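Exercise: predict the fold of this chain.
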Amino acid sequence: MGTFYLQNFGCRATQADGAALERQMLERGMARAAAPQDAGVVVLNTCTVTEAADRDVRAAIRRIHRENPQCRILVTGCYAQRAPQELAALPGVQWVVGNSHKHQVAELAAPARDGFVPLGALASFSDQQISRSHDHQILVGDIFAHTELLAAPVFAAETASEKTRPNLKVQDGCDNRCSFCIIPSVRGQSRSLPGAEALREVRALVAAGYREVVLSGINLGRWGRDFPTPERFEDLVRAILEETELERLRLSSVEPMDWTEELIELVSTSPRIAKHAHLPLQSGSDRILRAMHRKYRPWHYRERVEKVRRAMPLAAIGADVMAGFPGETDAVFEESRAFIASLPFTYLHVFTYSSRPGTPSAAMAGQVPVQVARERNRVLRELAAEKNRAFRESLVGQRLEAITLGRGDTDSTEALTDNYLKLRLEGWHQANQWVRAAVRGVSEDGLTGSLSH
């Protein structure tokens, strides 16, 4: 029996891919190692959204090879799709497998005399897809011909006894062409998990005792558009409510133009959907949004966010925002900052622009110096912190539903509120339980409270 260790880098979609790979390797009889030093095969499931993400992967490869020179390293994911030769040149890397063939990683990693399945056994791979050298093999194909979608739940808590709030990826890839984004070229076109399969996964999670499931995807709101008879994301949400016993559904990031009137009504009126809306923004400047090739203007975005807030006065509302995109002058940044400040956000995910090879923005004029972009990032993070604290303070005295996460001590338990805030709950409570909490105060990064009677 072979041993493996799998490490994920990056977003929820990458984590979901990794969960599916782990499931496949376990089904093939492989055993999970506790650490890379104990594994015969180490699988690195990579991200490439920024240069920092690439650096993290390279550092991990060097560290693993230094600490366990006998293990075989298999690198897969987005970085592997984008720059396979770069990764293959690193010591210890045996295989580089792009997203185009990620669904066959378990087959490759299966035990054999040399640590991997021999090439001759891989009848489904053509010579054009495999690049060989004396010490590594590369398997990367046309990502836009890729139709597989790996899907397995990803759990929020670390230990088996406290697994809560699984993430279920139901969509992958993206048909948008934002000028800064490398994701379409490494994940391919938008493709969806069939509704019947999504419902089967949700039912299995419910049967296993999970009470909240998070739907995720690269462009989640486009779910179903790729089917021979197109379906809408709202159809999937409604089917989960009508055809499963799931107690709480939470939506991850949905593009602003996909927050339709129908979706807002579904989320706001159903007691089984978390009151939480994440709408990627990127910039509050019309000029920058156009340069980014985003499909909405600031006034469109404002309209959607304000509709969400009117429908759900206590909802969490979040956004992704970027600092330092090419052409972002001081005046343009201030325009964006003021727009963000004017909206009812409760949290922000703030990113510094990172030039990615092959994207249109990498060749644009007006590249912003790194230090300037980082300072703007700091300004936006401070704004986000102010908004988040004001939101938390407004909830003192309220009664909120929350799910216990089981992390804590005898005096308190960590929980997550329906509207996406950390809650330190008085007393010890078992994980994965719904509670109704009276909010007593705010902590450094969340709320404090006790059971409401």
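Check your answer against the key: The two ends are 53 Å apart (CA to CA).
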